[in-house]
Design a protein that fits this description.
CATH topology of the largest domain: Rossmann fold
Helix content: 25-40%
CATH superfamily of the largest domain: Methylglyoxal synthase-like domain
Structural class: alpha/beta
Number of strands: 21
Shape: elongated
CATH class of the largest domain: Alpha Beta
Length: about 525
């Protein structure tokens, strides 16, 4: 297919002049509109205005430019049907062989804070998607370019073939074009749905349309016989793992990313310098301190066995103190919002197999979590519930001390991110023991105590956080016997009175939050 005439109308002007120069050199007639036409003309390139072809000027503040039979007839006419070719001749419609269009920046517009409905509506492109869909539908005779990233390959092929584009190229461009219009429409639909939700809360539309681009092809899934890939949402600002940048180490795997996500979610709980260690999506080490180097050393001490092959995350720049704390330890991933140059150099030298990843330690407040189930998809708002002074209700004779209250808050944040049933033993700045993923709460309590004792951490004087209520007093008795002095839990059991009485009998302080944190 030889390109003789091209329609070029782009919102994003990046690289379009270079592409147009290639077209002009090959003798291709360039049709264009508005700002694109002015830019190309200023670059000294011959351009024919679309209004000259249609006989109608651009109107309605640019809302109508290309919506005309003399444009869409030239795009949609099948070159292999004589009656289509004859119709073009009869009506004086020039065939268009190449369409280059980038859409109005709707996604970028609505990503701005404070954008108004009228501003967003004006950035909904109509003519652009129409031309893209028309050209992609007629891919056997028309090529369609929708992204500046495609310009170089298209230019090279045109230059090397004397102005032709292969069937394989046209087919690939058409597929990408339909992906782009689907992504664009999904972004509009999703943003309009958010207008119906209260500020800061996610919207759950009647029809869910997810558009994502493949960011990584993974070596395999959870197990070597499973294939896998990582997709990044296409129509939202990059966040979480979607904003990560790998600086060092082998390719990431499916399980790496699951653990990485769990670690980042836990790390976001702490505004102060913090370090977390995750193994199989469960926390095995968490600490806060005056510096991330000290926090890393303390997090490692929570479980110096399980940290091997684990995921380590810190919420400040990674410096040499962090590197020193992890000396001699193999970790699958070390992530931070940034890395000091000397620390990164040392990590590259000493941890050949560790994946070093830079990722922003922030997430939008209205984030939605999705999980697949057999035959469907679950969606829920992220668990961002936090404690304020009015949330905690003291239910025992003894109230917790200031130190115990600080430790309870710390343990409660960690328990949010341990698989239910979850019991976390903690000091005010460090995890002491974790019991998670057990079928009953008393086993989780026993596991938390045994893990602490195995690594030599003292349980006497610690506090206990439970992700859900104690259905019986047995779990409470286990942590009390280990030396726990205070407990934080949601409350709500039919046997709350029995559990509170047990706490009083152990001279323990207990507070109810009214907030459950199951994590399945």
């Amino acid at each position: 297919m030889k390109v003789r005439r091209a329609l070029v109308s782009v919102s994003d002007k990046t690289g379009v002049v270079d592409l147009a120069r290639v077209l002009a050199k090959l003798g291709v007639e360039i049709l264009s509109t508005g700002g694109t036409a002015r830019l190309l003309r200023e670059a000294g390139l011959p351009v024919r205005e679309v209004a000259e072809v249609t006989g109608f000027p651009e109107m309605l503040d640019g809302r109508v430019k290309t919506l005309h039979p003399k444009i869409h007839g030239g795009i949609l006419a099948r070159r292999d049907l004589p009656e289509h070719v004859e119709a073009l001749d009869r009506h004086g419609i020039p065939p268009i062989d190449l369409v280059v269009v980038s859409l109005y920046p709707f996604e970028a517009t609505v990503a701005r804070a404070g954008v108004t409905l009228s501003e967003a509506i004006e950035q909904i492109d109509v003519g652009g998607p129409t031309m893209i869909r028309a050209a992609a539908k007629n891919w056997t005779g028309v090529a369609v370019v929708t992204d500046a990233a495609q310009y170089a390959a298209v230019s090279d092929e045109l230059a090397s073939t004397g102005g032709t584009l292969s069937e394989a190229t046209r087919w690939g461009l058409a597929r990408e074009a339909f992906q782009r219009t689907a992504q664009y429409d999904a972004a509009i639909s999703r943003w309009l749905a958010t207008r119906e939700a209260a500020p800061g809360t996610p919207a759950f539309p009647a029809a869910l349309r997810l558009e994502a681009t493949r960011a990584l092809s993974l070596k395999y899934g959870e197990n070597p016989h499973q294939s896998a890939a990582f997709y990044r949402p296409a129509a939202v600002a990059p966040a979480g793992l979607g904003a990560m940048q790998q600086l060092h180490g082998p390719e990431l795997g499916y399980n790496n990313l699951l653990d990485f996500s769990a670690a980042l979610g836990l790390l976001l709980e702490f505004p102060e310098p913090a370090a977390v260690v995750i193994k199989h999506t469960n926390p095995c080490g968490v600490a806060v301190a005056a510096s991330v180097g000290e926090a890393t050393a303390r997090a490692k001490a929570c479980d110096p066995v399980s940290i091997y092959g684990g995921i380590v995350g810190i919420n400040r720049e990674c410096d040499m103190a962090v590197v020193a704390a992890l000396a001699g330890i193999f970790v699958e991933i070390l992530f931070a919002p940034s890395f000091a140059p000397d620390a990164l150099e040392e990590l590259r030298r000493t941890k050949k197999k560790a994946r070093v990843i830079e990722v922003p330690c922030r997430m939008p407040a209205d984030a939605i979590e999705y999980r697949s189930v057999l035959g469907g998809l679950l969606a829920q708002s992220a668990d961002t519930a936090d404690l304020d002074e009015g949330t905690l209700k003291v239910v025992t004779r003894r109230a917790p001390t200031a130190d115990e209250t600080a430790a309870l808050r710390f343990g409660w944040r960690v328990a949010k991110h341990a698989k239910s049933n979850a019991i976390v033993l903690a000091a005010r700045d460090q995890v002491v023991g974790v019991g998670a993923g057990q079928m009953n709460r008393v086993d989780s309590a026993r596991l938390a105590v045994s893990r602490a004792r195995e690594v030599g951490l003292a349980t006497d004087g610690c506090v206990c956080a439970s992700d859900a209520f104690f259905p019986f007093r047995d779990g409470l008795d286990v942590v009390a016997a280990a030396g726990a002095r205070a407990v934080i839990q949601p409350g709500g059991s039919l046997r709350d009175d029995e559990v509170v009485a047990a706490a009083d009998s152990h001279d323990m302080a207990m507070v109810f939050t009214g907030i459950r944190h199951f994590r399945h």
